[in-house]
Design brief:
heterodimer; A: two-stranded antiparallel ribbon
């Protein structure tokens, strides 16, 4: 027992580093009123975690830790890298946010909670036991409740936080109910055990189907899939923009990782022969992929259609991120390695383009004090570089070559076409045409409309420009040359417990 | 053929990008330097096109064999190693031209150069304008020279954004509406094209000569050889509904660009709102991409579907011809009239192509070139008048013949060329297209009815001339100055081309006849095997 735990700890270094960072950050924040020191410390902690993660990626194979509680495999490592990448970037954003300074609380707490949330997401992406999944989901959620209400004297921020808590509590309750049913049906909590029990074929499929749907509610909430998305726009609009950016990328990535692992491992029919390598068969009687397909269509269509009417750019990006969750769900629908690889590729791309867009929204809000799309009029003239950069990010979100977003979409649609999901592919591409309409609204205002008469030139410091470049260059380079990314993603789809 | 280690096609394609960088680096105040740089770049492009024209071997067919293409450049671009569950991916930087694309390359070079000289009067942020124009130029050129479907798609999409901004920033009063309509329509078409492209990708494999490995590829030439289709893959079965579906998806993508009825409604808006030079590019080159795509991709890759859809295609051509002409007749707005006449003339291209015989396709391709030059002239002419009078209402004019004699002369050439007067280039291509279409038994009736279009065209063209030039001149136009030298400079080269090709079209026909023959052969043979297979 102890031996096993000690063995496992060797593979648990990145998470350990995050835990230590969290504790130290909490302690230091007691003394550091302004929070700058904590910020720096957290940044270093995250950087060390990154190093440990890279080391682990190079050395460890696919293992399972702590009695099948937690899996370390290429799949989870890849998602951890995305999560860590976004927390590093969001930490950098936070250093420059004016909005956070309005909070009455210590900024130290903010940074500490950011680490706690990162840790929760790390655990989510590796959990292979339902209890572990639930706990890590809660760790992430609770930290994010506090963070989204961090600037709580802003009215919408507290509203956002409260809404988030209520929705979160409700959906995790439903999920817990589903988990308990699954436990009752299969007698096991870890995904491998569940799979074994299901393969034996003694489980009542209708009961399992209901339990599966209930569990899906929890995942759906985390990735803000329709119809579990109602919290998203309000939270995204009310939360500090750094947290919005973080939620839209990292928290989604963690949710997807957990969901993909749960569905593929637990409901995989490993007895099905004669399938080509890298494609799987879901268990008879529980076609969760059809369920996810419907979810995907609803999610992207609603996200895109509602986004058209938004006038606040943060809210617009919130709906757009709902739509993007819908696109990525298309990759989950395809029961194959290329579907999962496509989701992974998409997340990398999404990390850069979405954070890039949010960062620009943040620095523009710092300058002009507004998040209304109306106030973006003439921004392209007032600050050409920022205008062009935001245009590139938005085009990338639409999926127009030669930007990275196109590559992400290309692989998603390729996976769908390869698996002959034609109708879903058509719905997907039509959705991306719809999405163009509202993204265009932003750069139309920036370039086609005249600035307000008293609006002068906006200048941004070189630091801002460098940070934009950190996200802009990958967005452009991946669009033109994507072999390394695809190779890494394809090498990382290996998941513990799946052939 | 290489210059400084880089192939001539790369030069002609990426030269504008170089120009764009120079323009962006120039100081903001120095507007003339930007104009001259852009003009210099496009003139250089024309020179390269002339070199290509001289060196082009008229005897090589191209179409589906790599040996038949000229000025080939091939390099690995994206090569993703195979994983056990996903084959190797290979995307190539593969350029080359044959008889069909060489004409389009020349046309693009000429029209770009003309468009730049027509943009001299632009004063609003010249830097942005010229940079976008050059980017657009690269996109257009790239479409015509790329032989890898992925590369083709990237170039195809690169054009959208500059076009959006060029219409949206420098356009007329309803520019925002027109620009977004153009953007949405074209994107809608191209995403359908993307799906068809992916379906093709998963169906076609080639053997990599180096490793003997099977590689999925975007190489168009490989897609044209039916032996390369993996048995059992999505598009492998000839005459299957999946192939028809893919053909239709591709066709919609191209049809929106042409534009073919009922996807044409973006065109009048875009044309009316766009600045003159952009209308010239739009009508002169962009519309041809649609028909070029059909010839380069749809026909040789899906010969079975091409023959299957021959009659519907001809009917669409007929609708375009007659409907476009009728709409043009109803317009009071000079520019809108020309826009609808474009729809009508592109219908002739479609009709000629749908004949699927040598005369018809030659007629279609010639019409692509001739329409490019003639419509460019027409839009320039509209621009000249609009710059002076600030109105395009045809009914407000009259009796300009005496007021603007030079203008009237050049305009008459363009109008008569557009209505197909013998001796001018429009006649030759229309004659070939109709001749070919008449020879194809299955579409003969449609062709006969389509000829109404010629009468209608003559009617609205002559009526327009009458409204502008004849009668008495209204008091307010008595001070209109005649066309100036810069404007003449843009129009006269085009007029020379129009007259020369009208009298002696052989150079153009020589350029493409081998390739067109090969194309027609491929389509008919491919379709014949499909019949046997069934």
């Amino acid at each position: 027992m102890v031996q096993q735990i000690l063995e496992s700890a060797k593979f648990f270094q990145p998470e350990t580093a995050l835990t230590i960072t969290f504790c130290v950050a909490l302690l230091v924040s007691l003394f550091d009123k302004k929070g700058t020191m904590v910020g720096g410390l957290v940044f270093c902690g995250l950087a060390i975690t990154a190093l440990l993660l890279v080391k682990q990626a190079c050395t460890a194979g696919n293992v399972t830790l702590f009695h099948n509680m937690y899996a370390v495999d290429g799949f989870s490592t890849f998602f951890k890298a995305i999560i860590l990448g976004s927390s590093l970037l969001v930490t950098i954003f936070s250093f420059q946010s004016n909005e956070l300074l309005t909070a009455k609380r210590h900024l130290g707490e903010y940074y500490a909670l950011l680490v706690a949330m990162t840790l929760g997401m790390f655990l989510m992406s590796g959990s292979s036991n339902l209890i572990m999944m639930y706990l890590s989901l809660e760790l992430t959620s609770i930290s994010s409740y506090i963070l989204s209400g961090f600037t709580k004297q802003a009215e919408d921020s507290s509203e956002a936080s409260l809404k988030y808590v209520i929705y979160g509590a409700f959906s995790s309750g439903v999920m817990l109910y589903g988990i308990s049913m699954i436990y009752g049906l299969t007698g096991s909590l870890d995904v491998y055990g569940i799979n074994e029990a299901l393969q034996a074929g003694t489980v009542n499929m209708i009961a399992l189907f209901i339990a599966g749907i209930l569990t899906l509610v929890g995942f759906g909430y985390k990735i803000s899939a329709v119809p579990f998305h109602f919290w998203t726009p309000d939270v995204y609009e009310g939360a500090p923009i750094t947290i919005t950016a973080f939620l839209s990328v990292a928290s989604k990535a963690a949710g997807f990782a957990m969901m993909i692992r749960f569905f593929t491992v637990a409901f995989l029919d490993s007895t099905a022969g004669s399938l080509t390598l890298g494609t799987w068969q879901a268990l008879q009687g529980f076609d969760w992929n059809k369920l996810v397909a419907i979810l995907s269509v609803l999610t992207m269509t609603l996200g895109n259609l509602v986004a058209i009417w938004q006038t606040n750019i943060k809210r617009l990006l919130a709906y757009s991120s709902i739509a993007h969750a819908g696109y990525m769900l298309m990759g989950v629908v395809v029961l194959s390695s290329d579907g999962i690889a496509a989701v992974m590729i998409y997340f990398v791309v999404y990390l850069f383009m979405n954070l890039g867009a949010f960062y620009i929204v943040m620095i523009v809000a710092n300058k002009i004090g507004s998040e209304s799309i109306e106030d973006y009029k003439g921004l392209g003239v007032r600050s050409p570089f920022v205008g062009i950069a935001l245009t590139v990010f938005l085009l990338s979100l639409t999926g127009i070559p030669p930007t990275a977003g196109f590559v992400g979409k290309l692989y998603l649609f390729a996976a769908l076409i390869n698996a002959k999901w034609f109708w879903l592919a058509i719905v997907g591409v039509l959705n991306s045409v719809v999405s163009l309409y509202y993204y265009v609204k932003i750069f139309r205002n920036m370039f086609l409309r005249e600035p307000a008469p008293n609006a002068g030139e906006l200048s941004f410091s070189p630091v801002h420009i460098v940070i934009i470049m950190i996200m802009l260059l990958p967005t452009l380079i991946i669009g033109i040359y994507f072999s390394p990314l695809v190779e890494i993603a394809q090498a990382s789809v290996t998941m513990f417990g799946v052939r | 053929m290489h210059i400084l280690g880089l192939g001539i096609l790369s030069w002609i394609t990426f030269l504008p990008v170089l120009g764009m960088i120079i323009v962006l680096l120039l100081p903001k105040e120095n507007k003339n330097a930007m104009r001259w740089t852009t003009l210099g770049i496009t003139v250089f492009q024309v020179l390269l096109a002339v070199v290509i024209y001289m060196k082009f071997d008229r005897g090589m067919a191209g179409i589906n064999t790599m040996e038949g293409f000229q000025f080939i450049e091939k390099a690995k671009w994206i090569d993703i190693n195979s994983v056990t569950w996903f084959g190797r991916v290979s995307i190539e930087y593969f350029l080359g031209i044959d008889g069909i694309s060489v004409l389009m390359v020349i046309l693009t070079a000429i029209i770009s150069c003309v468009a730049v000289s027509a943009s001299w009067g632009i004063e609003k942020s010249v830097k942005g304008y010229m940079a976008l124009l050059l980017l657009l130029d690269t996109g257009m050129m790239g479409v015509f020279v790329s032989l890898d479907f992925f590369l083709f798609y990237v170039f195809w999409e690169i054009m959208l954004l500059p076009m959006y901004f060029l219409i949206g920033v420098w356009g007329g009063p309803r520019r925002e509406y027109a620009a977004i309509k153009f953007f949405l329509y074209t994107l809608f078409g191209s995403v359908l094209m993307l799906l068809a492209m992916l379906a093709l990708y998963f169906s076609v494999t080639t053997i990599d000569p180096a490793s003997g490995e099977k590689v999925h590829t975007f190489n168009m030439l490989a897609m044209m050889n039916h032996a390369n289709f993996e048995p059992g893959s999505i598009l492998a079965t000839i005459g299957s509904s999946a192939r028809y579906l893919a053909f239709v998806a591709l066709f919609i993508g191209f049809a929106i660009k042409v534009p073919i009825f009922p996807f044409h409604t973006w065109l009048p808006d875009a044309h009316v709102e766009a600045p003159t030079a952009i209308s010239v590019i739009l009508a002169g080159v962009l519309l041809k991409m649609g028909t070029y795509g059909i010839l380069r991709i749809s026909f040789p890759i899906f010969p079975d579907a091409t023959v299957y859809f021959q009659v519907p295609l001809a009917i669409l051509g007929f609708i375009n011809i007659v409907y476009g002409a009728l709409c043009a007749m109803a317009q009071d707005d000079f520019k809108k009239l020309i826009a609808y006449s474009s729809i009508s003339h592109m219908g002739i291209v479609i009709l000629g192509m749908s004949a699927l015989n040598t005369q018809g396709v030659i007629g279609g391709v010639m019409q692509m070139f001739n329409h490019g030059t003639i419509t460019a002239m027409l839009f320039l002419i509209v621009g000249v008048l609009y710059d002076r009078a600030h109105t395009r209402g045809l009914n407000e004019f009259g009796g300009l013949m005496n007021q603007m004699p030079k203008y009237s002369g050049i305009m008459t050439i363009a109008f008569f060329a557009a209505l197909g007067l013998p001796g001018l280039s429009g006649f030759i291509s229309e004659a070939f297209a109709f001749l070919g279409a008449f020879q194809a038994p299955s579409i003969r009736t449609i062709t006969i009815i389509s000829t109404i279009g010629i009468v209608l065209t003559a009617a609205y063209m002559l009526w327009t001339l009458q409204r502008l030039f004849l009668g008495s001149i209204p008091e307010k136009w008595k001070t209109l100055p005649d066309i100036n030298n810069r404007e003449l400079f843009t129009l006269i080269p085009l007029a020379i081309i129009v007259i020369f090709l009208g009298i002696y079209p052989a150079p153009m026909i020589d350029l493409m006849s081998t390739s067109v023959n090969a194309l027609v052969d491929i389509v008919n043979k491919g379709a014949a095997t499909a019949m046997i297979g069934q």
